[in-house]
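During the first year of the project, the team set up a workflow for recording each protein of interest as an amino acid sequence followed immediately by a discrete structure-token representation. This format lets reviewers and collaborators read both layers of information side by side without switching files. As required by the reporting guidelines, we include two representative entries from the current panel. The first entry is reproduced here exactly as it appears in our internal archive.
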Amino acid sequence: MKVIDFEATVEDGRIALPPEAGLPEHTRVRVVIEVGEPRVFRMMSPRLANPEQAADFVLDVTVESPDAGV
């Protein structure tokens, strides 16, 4: 059995061989599907370029009474 390797794409749910494949109608073919690694989305936590600047981002919380005197 002669084996020829072509790269194909899926178009509208059908496997489309390149025109240079030139296979006659009703030729039996074997399809091997390469399954790649799934894409993983990673959201990294923000980092300071200069960690010594962390003191610039300290949050001051002020608690006000329910009756602000308005």
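The second entry, processed by the same pipeline in the following quarter, appears below.
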Amino acid sequence: MTTPAVSAYGRVRGLIERWAGDRSLRVIAANTGWLVFDKLGRALVGLLVGAWVARHLGPSEYGTLAFVLAYIALFLPLANLSADQIVVRNVSQALASQEEILGSALALRLTLGVACWALAVAGVAVFDGDNGRLILLTAIVGGTLIFQAADVVDLWFQSQTQSRRTVAAKLVAYLTSNAIKVALILSEASVAAFAAVTALEGLLGALALAAAYRRFRTSRAWGLNRKTCADVARQASPLMLTGLAIMAYMRVDQILVKEVLGAHELGLYAAILPLSQFWQMLPMTIATSVAPFVARRRQADPEGYRRTIVLLMRLFFYAGVATTLATYAVSGWLVPTLFGDAYAPAVLALDVHVVSNVFCFLGLGASLWLVNEHRTASMLYATIAGGIASVALNLVLLPHIGLVGACLAAIAAQAVASFAAHAWLNPALMRLQLEAITFRRYRP
């Protein structure tokens, strides 16, 4: 008679044998491993060095730097097209025109990067013209909007499941920039020096990717095709607006915190955000790595594609729950240990803000379905709804309950954009999300 233990052993063995015999799964696992290694290493180094920078600058100066970074981030979705998944999908499927797609994406991102840099500096000059220091910091940090164009090389590597090449290139740039930050801390440098390192990291990353590409090129030189540019821009336009809305509700809280509560409170808030968002790299990395596989599976096996989407969303959702509980368990010790006693008042804000990860993780899984079903326009509407919720709640709550209000607004924004809005926009997706959460299939 077969015992439960033997039966379980047989199922596990069967899964292992299936994995070992499926080359595509092995490639995805290896690619994901490289990406996780990169993201985890970068996140750990960034968290530790960032905490040291926060200690060195103090909440007020750190809040000023955080404001500039948040402001520049608002332009990033426009500068980088917000079309990574679309470019990877097109390059994976259209083998004959890979070079035109990549070349066109590079030209678009470079042009938009320069335009966004000029617009960002002009915006500060208009609204804060008497603050020359803030204009200077914006001009320095804004250089990252131009250097991000080189990330098109990373999209080529992603489409070929060669992300380890990006890992090596960007890790060198990242470690170098953080080593410079440590040197600046030891030399008691000003906030402008740390802004310059942010731009330097973007430049070093671009140079490292160019060197990596020389070792793994496309079969032909990249080309520029106006029709391809127009097609990429057309497909990306909803995603750019969506990305802008995402950045609005992810970063506008920092801008509003500074305007309503001041730079000191923003310094406290900005310090806990990396702790809250630390584990978001896991679903983001997995989604990036499996995107080509999911795109191909939709064409070959629709039912298998559906099961894959549900499995990924289930994995992401419960990972969000687990990381939220883990963060809550250590927050009271972690914040003062990393940042110092001056940042201890931010512990409660971290405990509340980390809950937003549950909905953020679920939304990252849903984005794979939206891209492959060509429903990216609905992402825009859902994100706008989340952005409206974020702005409205921040304006109402910040004056009354301070930083906790910003954290509650972040939870609401993620819940609306990643889940609630799909009840109206994409009922089929919401059924898949409910199936992922409840382990029960919901039919229309």
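For the second entry, the following points were noted during internal review. The chain has one domain: 22-438. DSSP finds 20 helices and no strands in the chain. Both points are flagged for discussion at the upcoming steering committee meeting.
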